[in-house]
Amino acid sequence: MLEKTGVPAREQVEAVKPTQERLAKGPVAIVECFQEIPCDPCYTACKREAFLPFEDINDLPQTDFEKCNGCGICIGACPGLAIFIVDESYADHEALIMIPWEFLPVPAEGSIVQGLNREGEAVAEVKVKDVRSAGKNKKTSIITLIVPKEFAHDIRSIKV
Amino acid sequence: MDKAEILVIGSGPAGLKAALSAAEQGAEVTLVERDPFLGGQLVKQTHMFFGSKEQYAAERGFKIAEKLSREVEAHPGIRVLCDTTALGYYDDGVVSLEVKGRFATVKPQSLIMATGAQENTLMFPNCDLPGVYGAGAVQTLMNVHGIIPGKRVAMVGAGNIGVIVSYQLLQAGVEVPAIVEALPHIGAYHVHASKVRRMGVPIYTSHTVLSAHGKDSLEKITMVAIDQDRQPVAGTEQELDVDVLCIAVGLTPLTEILFQAGCKMVYIPELGGHVAMRSDTLETSVPNIFVCGDVGGIEEASAAMVEGSIAGLTAARNFGYGKDSYEDQLAAARRELDSLRSGPVGEKIRSGLKRLSSFGEVTQ
Amino acid sequence: MRIQNHPILDFKKGAKVNFTFDGVKVEGYEGEPIAAALHAAGVRVLSHSRNYKRPRGFWCAIGNCSSCNMRVNGVPNVRTCVEPLQDGMIVETQEGKGKIGGVCDG
């Protein structure tokens, strides 16, 4: 699936998800990196050591979800733009997600945009809660979206 | 006739690193680049690089180019000649150059070839129509000169270049209705593919372009599914209105000068074509001629930088520079290179290098 | 068409200059390749092939392939993808292999 279409299979996505218990506690990083490539900036970016040490640079990232507080610094460090933050503790029926964004326009805080799934299909209208830079000279924006909870693990992009 | 201790041809990631490593050991380096600016193809790369800190991971390619170019320009041991094309290599070791439109010659004691690669083409009816462009051309037009190649651009090739340039087209505000790939799977890093997919760009694996259409320039393409034998499947033809078709079907090393210099060359498909046989310190069969980067085999820029360091260090060492630190620095670079190539995505380069070594060892 | 805003890149441009393409006045920026300025102005056909007179545009844009050869200030076979634009240049579609001086007749 992934190697034919660019869309990861449901099982792959499920396999990197934290437990429901951890998700309910608050923001946490989900790393959708399913292929061993020589790359380790996520590991070096995290100051809380929430990524387990890489024995080999080709290792897949392993997250210690208990150490991760969902700060999102790894989002802008990931060259593959494959890290997202999900916060299911935000509200009863809504979750927050943080996604990387490298396009124009950058949506305005408070605006309503289309939430796209991993295939680029619009699945829900979502509200932009916050827009910030991924860091000095980074040029990547990190966008926090308020999404219906049932789409917290589907929406991974937006259409502004 | 000019003299040079070490002449580096090409200022992409490999050439910049080769010049720097040799100069840092104390060697006198002349670096020639045919463009008016340093950086080679790095200057067109807007995405963050993979790899590790040592290869500037998580920094964007054009930023790496800026950083290395500044270091090279500031180094007193490096003479930089931009707007300078290396034209040929002669029996007596003389390299001819066109320096800003004027003919010149230089006789280097050591030559580091970092000439990179050129893009492959693809044959189909009307493939010569204006609007059918190489992916590198599209990157140049768009990311160097700030001009979009067209309004709707289809991409041929789902390797790293095809998928990355598709993403860059989206960043420039261009619509990308299809990425067409003849192989049954995506060759690019999957994270790159997922980035364009979630922006709504479909990737058609096991598909190819049957023909292009247009009067004076491209207006439309016909794409088709292909079977296991790469034959078109009848009835699967689809027409797509596009004004540009971008071709990203691989690269071939730019080896003319290596042939002229009499380096032993062998054809290694996994490395992209003819490449020079070389020692494990990248010295070819002609003493003091080195290869690094894509000219020695098509690979990622991160590996090219490490190869540049190995070639630069060794070329300098051959003249007695940095003898004391050489072994340690070489070992560190080798470790970096081995780890970059060690994973599943390094399989192709590993098998290419294995095939290359099966032709025998290079001894000077 | 020129990119006005880009999420990652800033473009430095030279001074605005005028040149002619087949006698028609065109605007571009000094120092950018001739073929880039033409492309920005919507010109994609740069020459015609020698035998079959087929239209040719650029292909590699880095001076390798010769697909963009044009006549510039009367000189044929100029690689317009790498030749910097200057004010007042006379750029013409090249027919075939071009001819030095006079009319290029392939």
CATH class category of the largest domain in chain B: Alpha Beta
Order of helices and strands of chain B: EHEHEEEEEEHEHEHEEEEEEHEEEHHH
Based on DSSP secondary structure assignment, what is the total number of beta strands of chain C? 8
Report the CATH superfamily of chain C. 2Fe-2S iron-sulphur cluster binding domain, sarcosine oxidase, alpha subunit, N-terminal domain
The major beta sheet of chain C can be summarized as: 5 strands, mixed
What can be said about this structure in brief?
The complex is a heterotrimer of chains A (160), B (364) and C (106). Chain A is α+β, with helices and mostly antiparallel strands and 160 residues long. Chain A is 16% helix and 28% strand.
Report what the structure shows.
The complex is a heterotrimer of chains A (160), B (364) and C (106). In chain A, strand 2 (83-87) and strand 3 (94-101) form a beta hairpin. Chain A is built from five helices and seven strands, in the order αααβααββββββ. The radius of gyration of chain A is 15 Å and the shape is globular. Helix content of chain A is 16%, strand content 28%. Chain A has one domain (2-159). Chain B has two domains: 2-118 and 251-357, FAD/NAD(P)-binding domain; 121-247, FAD/NAD(P)-binding domain (3-Layer(bba) Sandwich). With 364 residues, chain B is α/β, with parallel strands linked by helices. The longest helix of chain B is centred in the last third of the chain and has 19 residues, at 323-341. In chain B, helix 1 (13-24) runs parallel beside helix 7, helix 3 runs parallel beside helix 4 (160-171) and helix 4 (160-171) packs parallel to helix 5. In chain B, the strands form five sheets. In chain B, strands 1, 2, 3, 4, 5, 6 and 19 form a seven-stranded mixed beta sheet that branches. In chain B, strands 8-15-9-10-11 form a five-stranded parallel beta sheet. Chain C contains one helix and eight strands; from the N terminus they run E-E-H-E-E-E-E-E-E. Chain C has one helix at 34-40; strands spanning 16-21, 24-29, 47-48, 55-56, 69-72, 75-79, 90-92, 94-95. Chain B binds chain C through residues 34-36, 46, 60, 62, 118-119, 121, 128-134, 136-138, 140-143, 145-149, 151, 171-173, 216-217, and chain C through 1-3, 6-9, 11, 13, 32-33, 36, 39-40, 44-46, 49, 54-65, 81-82, 84.
